[in-house]
Amino acid sequence: MKFYPMEKMISQNAMFVIEASGTRTMETISSFKNRIVYLQSESGDIVTLALQEVLYSKKNLAQAIFKPTRPLQPKTTYFLKYENQTEQETIDIKKRHQTSHKRKKLYWITNATADVIESSSNLKITYTKSRVTEFGCGPLAFAILEECEKLDPKNFLYPYEKAFAYVKKKEYDKAIKILKKTLKYENINSQVYQMLGNAYSYSGKEKKAIKTYEKGMEKFPNAGNLHLEKGNVFWFKEDYNEAAINYRKGIEADPMFPSNYYRLALLYLSSSDKLSGLIYAEIFMNLERTTQRTKEMSKLIYDTYKGAITLGEEESSIDFCEIVMDVKDLENGELTLPLCAIYGKHFILGMLGMKEVNSETIAKMRASFIEHFFEEDYKKYSNVLFDYHKKLADAGMLEAYTYYILQIGDAHGYEEWSTSHEKELNAFFDWYVTKDNYMEVTKKNMFIN
Predict the structure, then answer these.
(1) Helix (H), strand (E), coil (C) string for the chain
(2) Is residue 127 very low, low, confident or very high in pLDDT (cuts 50, 70, 90)?
(3) Short-list 39, 98, 96, CA closest to 72
(4) If pLDDT is split at 50, 70 and 90, which confidence band does 112 have?
(5) How sure is the predictor about 168, in pLDDT bands with cuts at 50, 70 and 90?
(6) Alpha carbon distance 52, 71 (integer Å)
(7) 377-397 average pLDDT score
(8) Strand-strand pairing, 9-10 and 107-110
(9) Domain 1-118: which topology?
């Protein structure tokens, strides 16, 4: 079976498609007319999916189209479930990884901004044919939902989704033509400018792409995704300084949008300023949980600690950054140290007596840092990540959290600890998925180096 949207990050008003091929799975599709299909969040919140239509093709394919009965919650992970779900259906719902071929639980994560636009209840499913396939119940499984213009002529979502299908097929000129018209709709969101800019960029029209993103920024000043895409244009030109400038502006525009942190983490973790990279990476992991990119960051964070910390019998050292100071650091005759110097001053105290660098010792070093940092320096060097570590420490969750953050980089260490600390790990998961314990990044506490 196949499940759509294919992207992990979805809007709060996303439509869902379940596709089947073959007798057994098509029976599952048919059963949806008489059973409940729903999304369940990590915290247990349930959103019922209303069946809109079941589409059948001549090629032994079927697709069930669903619409949530209410808007999804922002920055929430949802899992797909059926009423009276069988063991085989549980296996079917798990997505097969393309390279390892292992099946993993299917989930989607909603974006952080509440830009929900309700669709008309008078939904009509239509088909658009191309020379390659059908948009509808076809081999490529793009169920294009078009509301008749007479019923809902002002809704931009359907031409947007059609353009998205063309972008996926690399037919950028067709996507551009649709999206330019879509800009004239009322109540569009920043993603229309984003996709139009991307279509220009993918077709080699970088100047038009940047101009499109900038026009979108004028209309949507808090759209971090547009700064991201503008930065990506410079990223692929290997102009990393200009890319970083745009990613920072993206954080300023929308501190809860994760992808700008992701890009900055990649840049800084490959530079001499590894502390900034570690901070960006860990903030990202908290804003975008349980994705492939999160796993990538987990390994990068662990590898960076391993590479930056040197433990010796006579001398130990750390290399998180190059400290450069000038006259500007003197304020009223007092020397203001850069954050990295403060970090190193406290972090190195936790290294005393350590013999090797692994998840266990890194957890102890980080705990020691938080203990010493919050004695005095936190007043002058406020940091949203360190504040979150303090919250974790006060709740008795910092050790479990550190193992969780580092688990891909040190899989053996995580497995050993989780096996012997099952109670503590379960308590952490319960704490971590509670909304009150989510990291909240605002324009007042955001980190920008």
Answers:
(1) CEEECCCCEECCCCCEEEEEECHHHHHHHHHHHHCCEEEEECCCCEEEEEEEEEEECCCCEEEEEEEECCCCCCCCEEEEEECCCCHHHHHHHCEECCCCCCEECCEEEECCCCCCCCCCCCCCCCCEECCCCEECCCCCCCCCCCCCCCCCCCCCHHHHHHHHHHHHCCCHHHHHHHHHHHCCCCCCCHHHHHHHHHHHHHCCCHHHHHHHHHHHHHHCCCCHHHHHHHHHHHHHCCCHHHHHHHHHHHHHHCCCCCHHHHHHHHHHHCCCCHHHHHHHHHHHHHHCCCCHHHHHHHHHHHHHHHHHEECCCCCCEECCCCCCCCHHHEECCEECCCHHHHHHHHHHHHHCCCCCCCHHHHHHHHHHHHHHHCCCHHHCCCCHHHHHHHHHHHCCCHHHHHHHHHCCCCHHHHHHHHHHCHHHHHHHHHHHCCHHHCCCCCCCCCCCC
(2) very low
(3) 39
(4) low
(5) confident
(6) 16
(7) 94
(8) parallel
(9) Immunoglobulin-like (2.60.40)
Distance CA(76)–CA(112), nearest Å, equals 8
More confident of the two residues 278 and 45 = 278
How far apart are alpha carbons 306 and 354 in whole angstroms? 13
Instruction: Identify the band that residue 125 occupies on the pLDDT scale cut at 50, 70 and 90.
Output: very low
- pLDDT single digits (tens) 253-307: 999 999 999 999 999 999 999 999 999 999 999 999 878 899 999 999 999 999 9
Question: Whole-angstrom Cα distance, residue 113 to residue 233?
Answer: 24
Gap between the Cα atoms of 119 and 121, Å rounded:
6
Extract the tokens encoding 334: 């007092």
Nearest to 265 by CA among 378, 287, 254, 253: 287
Cα–Cα nearest to 155, from 123, 194, 128: 123
In whole angstroms, what separates CA 171 from the centre of its chain?
26
Residue pLDDT, tens place only, 409-424: 999 999 999 999 999 9
In angstroms, the CA 350 to CA 363 distance is 10
Where do the structural domains in the chain lie, given as residue ranges? 1-118, 292-437
- When pLDDT is cut at 50, 70 and 90, the band that residue 71 belongs to is confident
Total-model pTM: 0.71
The span from the CA of 345 to the CA of 142, in Å, is 55
